[in-house]
Amino acid sequence: MAMNLGPGDDGDESGVLIEINTTPLIDVMLVLLVMLIITIPIQTHAVKIAMPAAQSVIAAPPPVVTIDVERDGAVHWNRQVVHDRQALEKLLRATAAAAVQPEVHLRADRQAAYRDVAAVLAAAQRQGVTRMGIVDDTSRSR
């Protein structure tokens, strides 16, 4: 900050004039301007990529497998009773190995024990089923 001392009160008009030193401000603005000039060409640089043409093929929806867990622990595979866990794991293994893995929808009765539902989820995970969802059918369990 620069300070100019004017004439004093004793007849020589003393008044202190304070002026802002703008040199640092101008230096900072010049640095910012140079940075802006340097970075603009980098931001507008484009990479040419040959994109494949879009095909209007409508894919068939993936098959859906429904697993129902009843309140007594019974498991149904597409409405067919699965008698034991080994049979369920065999069906899940075949589903996971399919070329196009079907969506597996798990529907559990509201009164079903958590351990029965968790056992089906764990078996699906062990067998490699990746497309699985839990379906809530509120009209079913009332």
Main β-sheet, spatial strand arrangement:
5-4-3-6-7
Secondary-structure element series: EEHEEEHEHE
Total helical segments? 3
The fraction of residues in strands falls at: 15-25%
* Biggest pleated-sheet summary: 5 strands, mixed
Helix-strand makeup class:
alpha/beta
Low-confidence segments: none
Features:
elongated, alpha/beta, 7 strands, 34% helix, 2 domains, two-stranded antiparallel sheet, Nucleotidyltransferase, domain 5, 142 residues, 5-stranded mixed β-sheet
Task: Describe this entry's structure for a reader.
With 142 residues, the protein is of the alpha/beta class. The protein contains 3 helices and 7 strands. The chain has a 5-stranded mixed sheet. Strands 1-2 form a two-stranded antiparallel sheet. Helix 2 packs across helix 3 (114-127). The protein has 2 domains: 2-43; 64-135, Nucleotidyltransferase, domain 5. 34% of the residues lie in helices and 21% in strands.
